[in-house]
Design goal:
The chain has an 8-stranded parallel beta barrel, surrounded by 7 helices. It has 10 helices and 8 strands. α1 runs parallel beside α10. The chain is α/β, with parallel strands linked by helices and 250 residues long. The protein is globular and about 45 Å long. The chain has a single domain, classed as Aldolase class I (TIM Barrel, Alpha-Beta Barrel). α8 links the parallel β6 and β7. The structure holds 2-phosphoglycolic acid. The site of 2-phosphoglycolic acid has 13 residues, from β8.
């Protein structure tokens, strides 16, 4: 059985005042049956881990460098995230692929070093609107999956996030059959590459305009093991409603 995952990605949002949202979330979900993760900006990671200490909420980073350390001004290593109390890290988010021109090879190296440091690694994949309209979605996802996921991945340290770029922050969500098609495809590819045991234990989460209103339907789609949530993770009431929908899904 895969344990479901509700992951919030705060992106470049939040100062110390936002930590209150974490306290509220912890109070609302004292004994969750899913994993609950918040990835705040790096400046808040350490304080966030203190706020959620002794609760079921976990904290993660939004990116890490490919190298263990060195002359990379402004960057953060996987070891530093771990040291600050992070348990997870997101790599290959489409905003990083676009803003920082990250290619699959870089994402794969980041995932590898994150796993080597004991971080559960959320590798993001997703097609653009042009690629979807050209009926290239599965080719793109297949290429990103083989290029961005390290061979050393195990079922426990890897999460795949399917996030169509055109759905992120736009309010446009793919149809449930489109989501199901991609998640089933990713599952089949994982099983083929890593074998059924590992392939079936990797969680595949959906991301892109998930909100309390659409979450329940999305969580009923086959091979959707949770969500990676941007905007709706910033307010504890919204994210809490998404967690409740996840835990109610079959
Ligand atoms: P969104 O972002 O929920 O605001 O669309 C999702 C993401 O980028 O992870």
């Amino acid at each position: 059985m895969r344990r479901k995952l509700a992951a919030g990605n705060w992106k470049m949002n939040g100062t110390g005042a936002a930590l209150q949202e974490l306290s509220e979330l912890a109070i609302a979900h004292p004994k969750p049956t899913s994993d609950i993760l918040i990835c705040p900006p790096a400046t808040l990671i350490h304080r966030a881990t203190q706020v959620v200490a002794d609760t079921a909420i976990q904290i993660g980073g939004q990116d890490c460098h490919t190298d263990p350390k060195g002359a990379h001004t402004g960057d953060i290593s996987a070891e530093m995230l771990k040291d600050a109390g992070a348990r997870y890290v997101i790599v290959g988010h489409s905003e990083r692929r676009q803003d920082h021109n990250e290619q699959n090879e870089t994402v794969r190296a980041k995932a590898r070093i994150a796993m080597d440091n004991g971080l559960t690694t959320i590798v993001c994949l997703g097609e653009s609107l042009t690629e979807r309209e050209a009926a290239n979605t599965l080719d793109i996802i297949g290429g990103q999956l083989s290029g961005s996921v390290p061979d050393a991945a195990t079922g426990h340290d890897l999460v795949i996030a399917y996030e169509p770029i055109w759905a992120i922050g736009t309010g446009h969500v793919p149809s449930l059959s489109q989501i199901g098609e991609v998640h089933d495809f990713i599952r089949a590819r994982l099983e083929r590459r890593f074998g059924p045991g590992v392939g079936r234990s990797v969680r595949i989460v959906y991301g892109g305009s998930v909100n309390p209103g659409n979450a329940g339907d999305i969580f009923d789609v086959s091979n959707v093991d949770g969500a990676l949530v941007g905007g709706a993770s910033l307010k504890s009431a919204d994210f809490s409603a998404i967690i409740t929908a996840l835990e109610a899904a079959s």
